[in-house]
Amino acid sequence: MQLNNNVTEFILIGLTQDPFWKKIVFVTFFVFYLGTLLGNLLIITTIKTSRALESPMYFFLFYLSLSDTCFSTSIAPRMIVDALLKKATISFSECMIQVFTFHFFGCLEIFILILMAVDRYVAICKPLHYLTIMNRHVCGVLVAVAWVGSCVHSLAQIFLALSLPFCGPNVIDHYFCDLQPLLKLACSDTYMVNLLLVSNSGAICTVSFVMLMFSYVIILRSLRNHSAEGRKKALSTCISHIIVVILFFGPCIFIYTRPATTFPMDKTIAVFYTLGTPLLNPVIYTLRNAEVKNAMRKLWSKKLISDDRR
């Protein structure tokens, strides 16, 4: 379908065209992205090297941090570099790759959040059967299914993008390639494509959010039967998960569940879930989780000891 298009590259408007503000964007998001990498890679390293973090919850947290890292990387590096350029362009093929990777890792994060909610439900509501139900094999299969489901979702996005004919304007009023801004450039009726987009991305976001919030309501209600100490620990973990869910799904639902219309705040909201949430997730999970903080301290102590011996 690409051969039928007259457009071979797109021009990205970005967040601003003002030279001064472009420098601010460069510095700000370079710091954001660096913080995202350091925070998530620290969690990944800590979970992989700590024997105290071998439970299914941390198994899923490992993949959440991995998806956060890749999700942010699919957008941030190019956005940072484009902030230094007078004219930011992206080829048609690179644009399609960005659409695929962005939706793949975004969808993977949604599925991992669902798996983390399932894990907490089993741990709190069925504690005696927790290790039997959520064994390593089951967790591995669930993560594999999440990867396959994310791939199917992303392939659907690519199919929709490739079905759009581009024959004229090639200026994308955004800082990355996504279906919504691409729909505005298509030289054909995009009603059905937009309907499929809402049915796909919009439904995944909305249904997943409702499922997650409903599951956490059930979990929180079941905490009444636990001891004060157990209730406090479980409540702390669940609140962390709920904060992450709201921060991630709120902007996504706003963007993907409406008709093909754009608002001035769309790019700002997109910044929040493409760069803000991946940066906040490590902070939320680290500050509210004593086990992760203790494991990080031990990892840091081991590093200092090994450096002293050298």
UniProtKB/TrEMBL annotation:
Keywords: Cell membrane, G-protein coupled receptor, Membrane, Olfaction, Receptor, Sensory transduction, Transducer, Transmembrane, Transmembrane helix. GO terms for cellular component: plasma membrane. The keyword Cell cycle does not apply. The chain crosses the membrane at residues 24-45, 57-76, 96-118, 138-160, 201-223, 235-256, 268-287. It is found in: Cell membrane; Membrane. Residues 39-285 form the G-protein coupled receptors family 1 profile domain. The lineage of its organism: Eukaryota, Metazoa, Chordata, Craniata, Vertebrata. This is Olfactory receptor. It is a multi-pass membrane protein. PANTHER family: OLFACTORY RECEPTOR. One of its GO terms (molecular function) is olfactory receptor activity. Belongs to the G-protein coupled receptor 1 family.
